[in-house]
Specification:
single chain; alpha/beta; Rossmann fold; 6-stranded mixed beta sheet; 12 helices; binds nicotinamide-adenine-dinucleotide
């Protein structure tokens, strides 16, 4: 497996591989950039088929964190960690045997060895309790129950206001009433988002792999249930991917019928050039790392040891304007939204890099 030759390797500052013999932990931490500050990004635990797949994932995600933290105006760089689910856990990332706590403690030691260049938090299949176990070995972890808490409600709130910025431009209205929104994935973010969308008067189409959740959405929101993959190309006004990445790919792109794509999943486009195709097709795409920044905004004060809910509320509400400016620039300059967002985010990182060092 090569690192530098990997397509997803884009001038990352460093990539670190960790193994803990006792717990079977295999983890990769990628630090994309520390130009704006220490690299902040969550840790996810996934059943990867091999380490090359884990590497590609962590490289794409860590770059995404650099861009996300930059555009959100945070003094933080971008990094990410992935842990491969140990085979001894029957490949179940939610396994809750006694070894789980020890594995996250070992991961904490790995994070600590980087001396604060990388700060971790929860992500997919890594809970607040797992974060507490990481905290037993390192101070470089946020999103603890003693801190700013679960970031998901803030991610959902950011997606909702970002979706409104898209609706304003695509349908010339700021009202959700009468629109149809298709949400893929009714987890911590997707469910909260559905609550807001339902309250705002839109119709919901939903998909998930858990039938019980779907039945609950049908009962509570009058949602129509769609196939988990078919929902990507279902007839609707807005499609919100809130489950996994890569749902807009070579196979699905020609069949998307929504006018807007706005959801929380990271890396929604399987590759960046698909943004060009969406733009040409007149589909307004909210770049994922812009619209899903609510969660990282929520945990950012904790890095400074501060609890500041007022600041978080103000910053998350501000995502509507940040995204709106990107969408407007994309329309004025006739360029894909993801290209515009990348440019603005990268510019801030580059400016920080070339700033002369302050004299001591
Ligand atoms: P989650 O694990 O709580 O929810 C994911 C949901 O998707 C679950 O209900 C799961 O059953 C469902 N699902 C899984 N595979 C599916 C499939 N093939 N089709 C349909 N549904 C499927 O995760 P979450 O915290 O709600 O995050 C959702 C997405 O948003 C993830 O991609 C995550 O990386 C991203 N994200 C989350 C946050 C956050 O604050 N939680 C922040 C930024 C980005």
């Amino acid at each position: 497996m090569s690192v530098f030759e990997c397509d997803a390797f884009q001038h990352h500052e460093s990539v670190h591989f960790f193994v803990d013999k006792l717990t079977g932990m295999k983890a990769i931490i990628a630090i994309h950039s520390t130009d704006l500050g220490p690299a902040l990004g969550g840790c996810r635990m996934v059943r990867y088929s091999n380490s090359a797949e884990a590497l590609t994932d962590v490289l794409r995600l860590s770059r995404g964190m650099s861009l996300k933290n930059s555009l959100a105006g945070l003094e933080l760089g971008g990094g990410k960690a992935v842990i491969m689910v140990p085979e001894s856990w029957n490949n179940d990332p939610k396994y809750d045997g006694p070894e789980r706590a020890e594995l996250f403690r070992a991961f904490g030691r790995a994070v600590d060895s980087l001396g604060g260049r990388y700060i971790t938090a929860e992500d997919m299949n890594v809970s607040v309790e797992d974060a507490s176990n990481i905290r037993r070995s390192t101070k470089y972890v946020v999103g603890l129950d003693t801190g700013m808490g679960d970031p998901s409600p803030f991610t959902a709130q950011g997606v909702f206001v970002g979706m409104r910025a898209c609706i304003k431009r695509a349908f010339k209205t700021s009202s959700f009433a009468g629109l149809t929104v298709a949400v893929q994935g009714l987890g911590k973010v997707g469910w909260r988002l559905c609550e807001d969308i339902h309250k705002a008067g839109a119709n919901l189409i939903v998909a998930d792999i858990v039938d019980e959740t779907l039945q609950k959405a049908k009962a509570e929101f009058g949602a129509i249930i769609a196939d988990k993959d078919g929902i990507v190309t279902t007839s609707c006004d807005v499609f919100a991917p809130c489950a996994r990445g890569g749902v807009i790919n070579e196979d699905t792109i020609g069949q998307v019928r929504a006018k807007v794509i706005a959801g929380s999943a990271n890396n929604q486009l399987s590759n960046d050039t698909l943004g060009v195709d969406l733009h040409k097709a007149g589909i307004l795409y909210a770049p994922d790392y812009v619209i899903n920044a609510g969660g990282v905004i929520n945990i950012a004060p904790e890095v400074q040891g501060v609890i500041d809910h007022k600041w978080v509320a103000m910053k998350v509400a501000g995502l509507e304007q940040t995204l709106g400016e990107i969408l407007d620039k994309s329309m004025t300059e006739d360029r894909p939204t993801n290209e515009v967002a990348d440019e603005i985010a990268s510019r801030r990182i580059l400016d920080a890099r070339v700033k002369p060092m302050q004299a001591a």
